[in-house]
Design brief:
Largest sheet: 2 strands, antiparallel
Number of domains: 3
Shape: elongated
Number of helices: 19
Order of helices and strands: HHHHHHEEHEHEHEHHEHHHHHHHH
Radius of gyration: 30 Å
Strand content: under 5%
CATH superfamily of the largest domain: Fumarase/aspartase (Central domain)
Length: 431
């Protein structure tokens, strides 16, 4: 069953109807190659192409008896085709059809995900430039560190999403292979030329070597790529959850008219979209682990991977596409509060410029150890006494022996800290 949150186009890709259509595409391609090579009569091919169709309900009925989905499928085809059906599935094993068709389904799904990821990149780029010079405090370990801009935060996400796009393209290439090599991959009943011609017709590459199945490291590469992609989305959502905290208040999810945050507390505006993204990303990661477990199969193949893939392939692609859409909407409609960013920037009363002060003292001849001690003594007073760091430095006689008032004032200039923002943007968005 397709989950209710599935977007229509991705949902269509993972229907039984589309799965069986891809199986039929493979079977027809094999028949076409056979007719071209003279293995089956061209008259039989014409009948097969004209009459071949399937009925999903009928396949399910037959499978109740056969307990084998591919046999149920070919039996259903035979009911529509008639005597010429003896040439369908000629020389094939079930996985020749299933794994080759899987590649076609996965390519469809990955193309859709790549398209959605590109939309997210466009949104991140647009909003990064919008907030390029919107200054905020940077945080390490959750503690105020040094100034940054919200544009740089979004530019970082853009760059990471671009890497995910590259990974998705590589994963699509890795999975774009088919096999028509038989029960143990030895081409016992068909020549490799058949496989090559069939794959070419389907827009795939022939696997250089296979067993009864396409090797599952390829599937694991796809699933791990989806896991990395959704982990990046979780990274974005987690930051927004922090920024929306009442104590921070620098950004928040769009809250629509009529939306409710709590059944008990009417004042609540909760970051529900971000929390959903963080939660569902865990499912994709868990599915990637299952894909890793599928790599090792007994000998030329067992069936332990099959039941797992019936869940993880559809769910992971559906979830990734859904989370990309949700993240794109989240960023596009994100409400940003620059004034609150300014307020929080000064919350620690200037202590965030301690690193710049440390460097200036070392430039003027102090050892790093002595300079660090001077600066830290004043910085700790800010923590404990809630006093202004700039005022403390101006009043520190030891520091005043080394730095002039104008030099001290320059240390607390945001323009010095953020002078390279434009250069970073040029590097990120060069292309």
């Amino acid at each position: 069953m397709i989950p209710r949150y599935t977007l229509p186009e991705m949902g269509r890709i993972w229907t039984e109807e589309n799965k069986f259509q891809k199986w039929l595409d493979v079977e027809i391609a094999v028949c076409e190659v056979h007719a071209e090579m003279g293995t089956i009569p061209t008259s039989a091919l014409a009948v097969i192409k004209e009459k071949a169709k399937f009925d999903v309900k009928r396949i399910a009925e037959i499978e109740e008896t056969t307990r084998h989905d591919v046999i149920a499928f070919t039996t259903c085809l035979a009911e529509f085709i008639g005597p010429e059906s003896r040439y369908v599935h000629f020389g094939l094993t079930s996985s020749d059809v299933v794994d080759t068709a899987n590649a076609l389904v996965l390519i469809e799904a990955l193309n859709l995900i790549i398209d959605t990821a590109n939309k997210l990149s466009n949104t991140l780029r647009k909003r990064a430039f919008e907030f390029k010079d919107t200054v905020m405090i940077g945080r390490t370990h959750g503690i105020h560190a040094e100034p940054t801009t919200f544009g740089l935060v979004l530019a970082l996400y853009y760059a990471e999403n671009q890497r995910n796009l590259q990974r998705l393209e590589r994963a699509k290439e890795a999975i774009s292979v088919g096999k028509i090599s038989g029960a143990v991959g030895t081409f016992a009943h068909l020549d490799p030329e058949v496989e090559e011609k069939v794959c070419q017709r389907l827009g795939l590459k022939a696997a250089p070597i296979s067993t009864q199945v396409i090797q599952r490291d390829r599937y694991a590469e796809v699933l791990s790529t989806l896991a990395i992609t959704t982990a990046s989305l979780e990274k974005i959502a987690l930051e927004i959850r922090h920024l929306q905290r009442s104590e921070v208040g620098e950004a928040q999810e769009f809250f629509g008219s009529g939306q409710k945050g709590s059944s008990a507390m009417p004042h609540k505006r909760n970051p529900i979209v971000s929390e959903q993204i963080c939660g569902l990303a865990r499912v994709v990661r868990a599915n990637a682990q299952a894909a890793f477990e599928n790599i090792a199969l007994w000998h030329e193949r067992d069936i332990s991977h099959s039941s797992v893939e019936r869940i993880i392939l559809a769910d992971s692609h559906i979830l990734t596409d859904y989370l990309l859409h949700r993240t794109n909407k989240l960023i596009n409609k994100l409400i940003v509060h620059p004034k609150q960013m300014q307020k929080n920037l000064h919350l620690m009363q200037g202590v965030i410029f301690s690193g710049q002060l440390l460097l200036e003292l070392t430039r003027h001849g102090l050892t790093r150890e002595d300079a660090y001690k001077l600066v830290q003594n004043n910085a700790m007073r800010v923590w404990d006494e809630k006093v202004n760091f700039h005022d403390l430095i101006l009043a520190d006689t030891e520091i005043n022996k080394i730095l002039s008032t104008s030099e001290i004032n320059a240390i607390f200039d945001l323009k010095v800290q953020l002078r390279n923002v434009e250069k970073i943007f040029n590097r990120v968005f060069a292309n």
